[in-house]
UniProtKB/TrEMBL annotation, chain A:
SMART domains: HTH_GNTR. Keywords: DNA-binding, Transcription, Transcription regulation. GO terms for molecular function: DNA binding. InterPro entries: Tscrpt_reg_HTH_GntR, WH-like_DNA-bd_sf, WH_DNA-bd_sf. This is DNA-binding transcriptional regulator YhcF (GntR family). Residues 7-75 form the HTH gntR-type domain. It holds the Pfam family GntR. The keyword Transcription regulation applies. PANTHER family: GNTR-FAMILY TRANSCRIPTIONAL REGULATOR, HTH-TYPE TRANSCRIPTIONAL REPRESSOR YTRA. Gene3D superfamilies: 1.10.287.100, Winged helix-like DNA-binding domain superfamily/Winged helix DNA-binding domain.
Automatic annotation (TrEMBL), chain B:
One of its GO terms (molecular function) is ATP binding. InterPro entries: AAA+_ATPase (IPR003593), ABC_transporter-like_ATP-bd (IPR003439), ABC_Transporter_VariousFunc (IPR051782), P-loop_NTPase (IPR027417). CDD domains: ABC_DR_subfamily_A. SMART domains: AAA (SM00382). Pfam families: ABC_tran (PF00005). It comes from Hymenobacter artigasi. PANTHER family: ABC TRANSPORTER ATP-BINDING PROTEIN ALBC-RELATED (PTHR42939:SF1). Gene3D superfamilies: P-loop containing nucleotide triphosphate hydrolases (3.40.50.300). This is ABC-2 type transport system ATP-binding protein. Signal peptide: none annotated.
Length: 131, 285
């Protein structure tokens, strides 16, 4: 996994895990990799992954069965979507707006391109928050 | 695990390498030891494993003075030096002859690590390339399963895929019982692997801090122009790279290279900001 320079690694891993859940690769109530397995796969410190899992647990995206491991929460998709929506609307979108303003790009142009973009997607996206 | 207090050491009296150096290392962490060439990283590691003796102060490992080299301590510690020596035997033979010194040695783990590293178990160690020899010794060191594992520049001589395999293996080898110390000057090789950074500079430890906590206290950014309130600033082609106090804007990513440059450049604002609180793993005496 390539890490970006400007965000803490544990947050980037949280984004990665959330994405796998959104895409249905890790369905509700399925067991997710142990801290050590994921640390090995991503080549990061296990304490970092532990921090990610604790964060996701506090967001009710995963839950911990003592002695067994971490599982995807039943309502994880909704939780992740809500968090991703918040983040997109409050952080990513203002950055896009800033660039639009700087370059003098107006909404109709974006709208037209967005409609075009949607037709190029292989399947209709089930969730409004996929990247 | 490791407790060093007021260590004095020098190879000659005129040029002391460490003066009043104190450092505490705990189980459950991977420490990255950073320092400039000649700062004494290897010498500090040698003091920890009992290969160099303090001129003054104490250096204890597992509750015992390292210099006493008690068998019970040596059985629970492994030191992988930067320059390695391998005898003219096969990997399998070496393991058979040497594993006995390490009561917790895990033969299954060794086979697994050698597989990951693609090192043949049946070839003479002396016939392997330097990188292959180094990977064998890293695999052996990790399989020894000691509480304390000290590795001096382990990624030197490894090719790019081997560095990735190294990170993967070390990430899975850490347990709550183990303490790993890795010295490096290749910060980029290890920055996602270590959880605590230790910086050796000017004869003492100038930083021993958890990366997560550093990320909460410091903000790293590239800005068009440095400002007077920055703790440290460095010019680059993209603008000024700066270190600032983080005022609750969430945790970003610690730029270890920039932090290291600031500390060895003795940036006074940064040093005084960081010393406002005791370094994380250094209990007040």
């Amino acid at each position: 996994m390539e890490f970006k320079d400007n965000e803490a690694i544990y947050l980037q891993i949280a984004g990665y895990v959330s994405e796998l859940i959104l895409r249905g690769k890790w369905p509700p109530d399925s067991k997710i990799p142990s801290v050590r397995e994921l640390a090995g796969d991503l080549q990061v410190n296990p304490n970092t992954v532990m921090r990610t899992y604790e964060l996701l647990q506090s967001q009710e995206v995963v839950y911990n069965k003592r002695g067994i491991g971490f599982f995807v929460a039943p309502a994880a998709v909704a939780q992740v979507q809500a968090a991703r929506r918040e983040r997109f609307l409050n952080q990513e979108l203002p950055e896009v707006f800033g660039t639009m303003l700087l370059l003098g790009i107006e909404l109709p142009e974006v709208q037209r391109r967005y409609e075009e973009f949607k037709t190029t997607q292989p399947q209709p996206l089930s969730s409004p928050v996929s990247r | 695990m490791v407790r060093i207090r007021n260590l004095h050491f020098g190879y000659s009296r005129k040029r002391p390498l460490f003066q009043n150096l104190s450092l505490t290392l705990e189980r459950g962490h991977i420490y990255g030891l950073l320092g400039k060439n000649g700062a004494g990283k290897s010498t500090l590691l040698k003091n920890i494993v009992g290969l160099a003796f303090p001129d003054g102060g104490t250096c204890e490992v597992l509750g015992q003075p390292a210099a006493r080299r008690l068998p019970a301590v040596l059985a629970d510690l492994f030191f992988l030096p930067e320059e390695i020596y391998v005898p003219a035997v096969t990997a399998a033979k070496f393991a058979e002859q040497t594993a006995g010194f390490y009561p917790k040695f895990d033969h299954e783990a060794l086979a697994h690590y050698l597989g990951e590293f693609e090192v043949p178990a049946q070839a003479l160690l002396t016939a392997l390339s330097f990188g292959q020899q180094k990977k064998f010794m890293i695999a052996f060191a990790l399989a020894a399963n000691t509480s304390l594992l000290v590795m001096d520049e382990p990624t030197n001589g490894l090719d790019i895929p081997s560095k990735a395999q190294f990170r993967k293996i070390v990430a899975t080898a850490l347990t709550e019982e183990r303490c790993l110390i890795i010295s490096t000057h290749q910060v980029r090789d290890l920055e996602s692997l270590i959880d605590t950074v230790v910086v050796l500079h000017g004869q003492r430890i100038v930083l021993n801090a958890d990366l997560g906590e550093l990320a909460e206290r410091l903000a790293f950014a590239t800005v068009p122009e440095a400002s007077g309130t920055d703790l440290y600033a460095e010019e680059s082609v993209r603008g000024a790279q700066v270190i600032r106090a983080n005022h609750g804007d969430g945790a970003g990513r610690v730029d270890l290279e920039l932090l290291f440059n600031a500390l060895v450049g003795e940036a006074p604002a940064l040093v005084s900001y960081l010393s406002q609180k005791q370094p994380v793993h250094e209990p007040a005496l």
